Amino acid sequence: MNAITPFVAVDVQSWSLFFGTRRILHQITLQIPAKQVTALIGPSGCGKSTLLRSFNRMHEINAEAHYEGKIYIEQKDIFQWEVTTLRRQVGMIFQKPVPFPKSIFDNIAYGLKINGCPPSEIKGRVEEALQKSYLFNEVKDKLHEPATRLSGGQQQRLCIARTIALQPRIILMDEPCSALDPISTAKIEELIGELAQQYTIVLVTHNMQQAIRIADYTAFMYLGELIEANNTAELFQNPQQELTRNYVQGNFG
Ligand SMILES: Nc1ncnc2c1ncn2[C@@H]1O[C@H](COP(=O)(O)OP(=O)(O)OP(=O)(O)O)[C@@H](O)[C@H]1O
Ligand SMILES: [Mg+2]
Asked: What pLDDT is recorded for position 251?
């Protein structure tokens, strides 16, 4: 086994995932650096979401899913984590923001309460999470209004606030901007850059320009395999594999 340095947040070792008899991911080995933005790119259906969802054991609800290989989060096998603790440490943001049908404040307070945050600290923690997700100034006068009244971009920042309120180590984002307009996208991209100072971010994106703009490290997948991973500039400017070169030059996908 490779030596695991403290700077690797997610260490994927020869990970294969099957749905029934169909192998979706083929022996993926990838080290995701801590406190950086790592982009997962590749054509539709190549397994980006499936890999991302492996990291916090989201496939567990699917009785068809089974695995080979190992994934270590902060040096601990994901199956040795207690699953709710793992999911608190490894938060997830989806393509379409899905706020709870509650007020803006309660969207964040709810998770804090069920995770045992003392009532006296809730208000401060909600405010801090809203500040960190660049939303506070836009919502400070309507914290008790329904979250569903927010714009799509604001809802996405609220979902990020809800996740960071639980003080995760890693934030997984599956095409978090694909339902957003360019201005909301720019805000989320800026926010992702800021969050990477404190958290490890793994971002699935279809948008190669987005990977170039915000990812430090990029992994290219094709048909369930990891073809190449490198510093983003290197991967795009000097790909080592022909498949990667064709993809980043826009020849397919
Ligand atoms: N629950 C499931 N059961 C069976 N097959 C699945 C399931 N989820 C995904 N797949 C299959 O796994 C493969 C990888 O899908 P995945 O969603 O990970 O791709 P992706 O790279 O995220 O694609 P996209 O860019 O379109 O989101 C696809 O062939 C898909 O049909
Ligand atoms: Mg996907």
From this structure: 78
